[in-house]
Amino acid sequence: MRLLTGVPYEPHGRDWRGADCYGLCVAFHWLAYSVNLPDYTYDEHVGAFSEAVTEAKLDQCWFKLPRDCEAAGDLLLFRMMGQPSHVGVCIGGGEMLHTLRSHDSARVSYVRSPVWRPRFAGAFRYVDPRHA
Hints:
- The chain contains 2 helices and 8 strands; from the N terminus they run ββααββββββ.
- By secondary structure, it is an alpha+beta fold.
- It has one domain (2-126): endopeptidase domain like (from Nostoc punctiforme) (endopeptidase fold (from Nostoc punctiforme), Alpha-Beta Complex).
- The strands form 2 sheets. The chain has a 6-stranded antiparallel β-sheet with strand order 3-8-4-5-6-7, with helices on one face. Strands 1-2 form a two-stranded antiparallel ribbon.
- The longest helix has 13 residues, at 21-33.
- The protein starts with 13 loop residues before the first strand and ends in a 6-residue tail after the last strand.
């Protein structure tokens, strides 16, 4: 969903007016699927997400996918400075929508680019427990 391309980076943001990396994923899922992803406080959002999906501690809504099985809407976790701390949303065709503090706004990047491929930590699919 390229509709969110250009959304300004905003710490704590969760919609089209401004979003951080996880907030962009929240906005994407709401616009594309009318699904409210679980939210986390700003200080813990990516840390809690990465803990939830990598250790299944937070909830049972996230399912780790085999490599190269990601589809549009899946969340992609990346290591920044060695720690899982960045998330983007797969939009298909090997591309993801994401935003970084260093970006002015949300953009599309190739998941297998020299920048992102070595940082890839996993792909995860959200399944709403009310509809599982």
